[in-house]
């Protein structure tokens, strides 16, 4: 508790600098393939803080052949990953502070009140793509680190700050950092959780099912086999699978979620002509994965399900459903609610906010799945961003929350990594 | 019976000329908007036969405002309709011989064995787009008329030959001919019926249903309303409607058809992203119409059905299904199997083929619906083309059937219109 007030005081006095840092990060568009200019600002910030920099362009066979690698990006050239380490004096627990620098596209620009890259501040909210997801979280981390350095506090354990690319597209940046050897005794990822603590995260992956029918004229449609009618059976079976899978989820962290691990049918296309029987249908969707199961186990359940459909239907026996796992894949993550990192974060939260945090499981995947599953690093997802505005028009963050999160994280570092007196 | 053998003999001797006429018609591509060059060949043939020609470009307010007008074509300029009349001496029954000159596109050219416009003859079959649907039928008509003229036979009733555009797109050509004043005591349309007699024809029309949902992230899909899930309800309700409508069909002419008047769901598109809840779905299809009901009555049934769905669902009450009737519409047609025209055609058929014809209802619409419903002209659809090859690659016709149909039609004309001795 010795340094807590010092840290709090410093962070209070430096709010304007924190807001300014977020503003300059938001003003750079860092969509996929364009991360370099924002990353350069983060690198310069870390250099000024005197951190040990490791800057590299990800890639190579080890990464691309890894089972958790899920990425259709052709080249990472020119858009590096960054790891910046505040080396400890030894003996304390280490921590990874991980944030992604990539943002999703702005979408329909006409839905935005301001320029999506304005970084405009209005009534305590900072607006712009990435403000909430998750440059605001990244600034909370950097301000927490700076508060230690500025106050001359030395920690025993290493603080490993990671500014990674590719989170929005499946986590190749964090996977590359894990494969480069970075792991720690704990990790915090300040994704936009509305200040909730997420020790568990739903994983997910995308699937595509192709259904084959037989074309015919609509006036004699019984001479064909409608790929749309067969799709109905498939969708109904997937609805049943979703029901069965969710009935098994009893974790109280999920109790507020009507469907803890949804199977979302996001897209269907079939047919070209109103008066023809369609001979092909394509369904695409997202399958949620429980924190307590593996991607493989979940895939296996859907595969069995479709195999049953194929076996039970005369037409499908000859013209089987085709299942592909494509595009995004996010590993689930699971940490016990009584893990020491949860305890430290909770205590710091109470110290700053005066009440205990809400603890839940996240309804979406983060890089936490890779950090914990591949990197063997216990992860808590906790951040100041507003879940609802992520990926949406008029994305914004409450600066008050950013500063509170920064305090909570700084206080946690003091205890987790231990101060070297 | 006096002239029958003379006619049969002449048609037998002039088979090569008939095949040659079909060949030159097939060699001209007469897809929508390109009918003029083929129509020019038909006009010249009718001029040579000494028929009274009426050639005009369709259009005008009366046509376009008619409730049976269903056409999205911008211009008919340069692609005329033709009516060519063999004037009777008076006192006999008149007849319309109606054939359309437009053909559907060739589709995937690589699926054709020969050039789609080759008109190649192989083993008694003439190949090419339009050979069966329905230039072959048109040639059967023209050869029947020529056989009368060549043998100096005068009929009492008028023979009104019509070569119309736009059948494949909803019948604006035949509607224009009806509105120009052409009607008769009977009509034959030699669409490809496999030599069956169709006194009744299924009508049809296209519909589009737009379903509105509410977008959300797939990981919290319960926060949205899936337009795909709502589509499932709609499709299931339409399946029930199809069942209910078909249970009412007891006409023996339909007994071979598993579903006499199908509701075909030809197309569905919904969603843009696997991990989003889709907020819009569009279903397009074709609704079959019974020969004994009107287009309006059938539309009303579907409208009631969707209204029920809207009223019974909380979401749809606020976000109702939107139904449009768009694109094609083909009126149904119904003639009693004991109509005198059916009797004459049947007798002629037996005389030529030695056995009675198969009598059925057609599973698709023709211009017969407009001729009978709007033009008050009793219609039988009967022709030499092969139903299965219409609209398909390698479309072809058996020339033997073409000549037989021509004989049957010529003999029918002798009796229907009566010979003026």
From TrEMBL, chains A, B:
It is an enzyme of class 3 (hydrolase). Keywords: Cobalt, Hydrolase, Metal-binding, Zinc. GO terms for molecular function: acetylornithine deacetylase activity; metal ion binding. SUPFAM superfamilies: Bacterial exopeptidase dimerisation domain, Zn-dependent exopeptidases. InterPro entries: ArgE/DapE, Bact_exopeptidase_dim_dom, Peptidase_M20, Peptidase_M20_dimer, Peptidase_M20A. NCBIfam families: DapE-ArgE, PRK06915.1. It comes from the Bacteria. Residues 201-312 form the Peptidase M20 dimerisation domain. Coiled coil: none annotated. Belongs to the peptidase M20A family. Its cofactor is Zn(2+); Co(2+). It comes from Neobacillus bataviensis LMG 21833. The keyword Zinc applies. Gene3D superfamilies: 3.30.70.360, Zn peptidases. Its EC number is 3.5.1.16. This is Acetylornithine deacetylase.
């Amino acid at each position: 508790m010795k340094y807590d007030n010092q840290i709090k005081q410093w962070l209070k006095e430096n709010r304007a600098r924190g807001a300014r840092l977020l503003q300059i990060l938001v003003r750079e568009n860092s969509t996929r393939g364009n991360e370099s200019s924002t990353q350069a600002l983060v690198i310069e910030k870390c250099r000024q803080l005197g951190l040990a920099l490791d800057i590299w362009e990800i890639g190579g066979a080890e990464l691309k052949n890894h089972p958790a690698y899920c990425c259709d990006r052709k080249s990472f050239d020119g858009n590096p990953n960054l790891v910046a380490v505040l080396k400890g004096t030894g003996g304390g627990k280490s921590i990874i502070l991980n944030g992604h620098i990539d943002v999703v596209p702005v979408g329909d620009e006409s839905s935005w009140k301001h320029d999506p890259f304005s970084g405009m501040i209005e009534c305590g909210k900072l607006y712009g793509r990435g403000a909430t997801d998750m440059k605001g979280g990244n600034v909370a981390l950097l301000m927490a680190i700076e508060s230690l350095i500025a106050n001359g506090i030395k920690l025993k354990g290493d603080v490993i700050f990671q500014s990674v690319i590719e989170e929005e597209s499946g986590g190749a940046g964090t996977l590359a950092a894990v494969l480069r050897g970075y792991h720690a005794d704990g990790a915090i990822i300040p994704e936009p959780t509305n200040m909730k603590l997420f020790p568990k995260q739903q994983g997910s992956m995308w699937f595509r099912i192709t259904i084959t029918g037989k074309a015919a004229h609509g006036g004699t449609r019984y001479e064909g086999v409608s790929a749309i009618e067969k799709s109905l059976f498939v969708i109904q079976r997937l609805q049943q699978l979703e029901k069965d899978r969710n009935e098994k989820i009893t974790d109280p962290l999920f109790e507020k979620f009507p469907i803890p691990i949804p199977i979302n049918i996001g897209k269907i296309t079939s047919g070209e002509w109103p008066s023809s029987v369609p001979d092909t249908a394509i369904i695409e969707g997202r399958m949620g994965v429980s924190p307590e199961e593996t991607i493989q186990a979940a895939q296996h359940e859907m595969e069995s399900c479709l195999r049953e459909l194929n076996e039970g239907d005369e037409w499908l026996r000859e013209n089987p459903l085709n299942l592909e796992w494509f595009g995004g894949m996010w590993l689930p993550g699971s940490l016990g609610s009584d893990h020491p990192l949860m305890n430290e974060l909770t205590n710091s939260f109470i110290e700053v906010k005066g009440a205990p945090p809400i603890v839940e499981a996240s309804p979406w995947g983060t890089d936490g799945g890779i950090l914990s599953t591949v990197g063997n690093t216990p992860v808590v997802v906790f951040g100041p961003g507003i879940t609802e505005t992520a990926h949406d028009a008029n994305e914004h963050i409450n600066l008050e929350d950013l500063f509170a999160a920064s305090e909570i994280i700084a206080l946690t570092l003091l205890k987790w990594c231990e101060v070297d007196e």
